[in-house]
Amino acid sequence: MFFFTKKVFLADAIDGLIDMHNHVLPNIDDGSDSLETTSSMIKLYRELGFSGVYTTPHTMEDYYGNDAEKIKSSFTETKAGLLKDDADFLLGTASEYMMDGGFEDILKTRNFLTLPGNHLLFEFSYFQKPFNSEELIFEMSNLDLKPILAHPERYRYLSIQQMLDFANRGCRLQLNILSLSGHYGSDAKKKALELLKGNHYSFLATDAHKQEHLSKIKEIQIDKKLMPSLQILIKTQMSTFENK
Asked: How far apart are CA 6 and CA 69, in angstroms?
């Protein structure tokens, strides 16, 4: 006798979620390349059941030349240029900060953009962990920030235990939805499933850079047994944004 694991569409759980990590803001990083693309991406967000997005363009020391003022200016211009049909779709902005040589100065000058609840989204290099990551996470906490590590499952050099150590230091972990499909490889998928099963994530997001990323989310199927963990995560995230 053969037993088949029942699969369900992940998108069925999204209803009303606000995406808190993406690259929808046009012509500012490696994400959307035009206002038209941004508008098309918002249409796909609606179809998936999202109620809004917080755009989070990259802030990196040697790329894009982004800072808080440039991002806010781009966001204001983009929001004004969107169709009236998008008026009821919540739009906000923050940034995804690379923990690089310039990040410490950003913290010192407090020249950063945060998500609701004073959450600050940051990422590591894909090659190695920053040597001073623990100190900078501590510094964020001292500034009354709530640090969120973007897509920890994608850092091949981090073990599950190392990720949990960051969580124990007060760092929230954010899941990339596409990791559950194997989009970033089998290692990222394996780690994502383990962290999700253990309810170790605090946030999930699309990290969408283009329309194709959102289209792929429509197709993702997961083990039905994972749905309760996913629903808990989504409910917690929605509550975080609703109360701030």
From this structure: 48
Q: What is the pLDDT of residues 45-95, one digit of tens each?
A: 999 999 999 999 999 999 999 999 999 999 999 999 987 777 789 999 999
| Number of domains forming the structure of the chain | 1
Neighbours of 222 (CB within 10 A): 19
* HSE-CB of 233 using CA atoms within 13 angstroms: 26
Nearest one of 114, 168, 171 to 139, comparing CA atoms: 171
Say how many C-beta atoms besides its own lie within 10 A of residue 237's C-beta.
Answer: 20
Residue reference for tokens 């897509």: 151
Residue 127 located in a structural domain = yes
* pLDDT tens digits, 170-203: 999 999 999 999 999 999 999 999 999 999 999 9
Q: Measured in whole angstroms, how far is the alpha carbon of residue 177 from the centre of its chain?
A: 9
**Start-to-end C-alpha separation, the chain:** 52
Contact 164, 153 (CB under 8 A): no
pTM: 0.95
1 falls within a domain: no
CATH number, position 50: 3.20.20.140
Domain that holds residue 189: 7-242
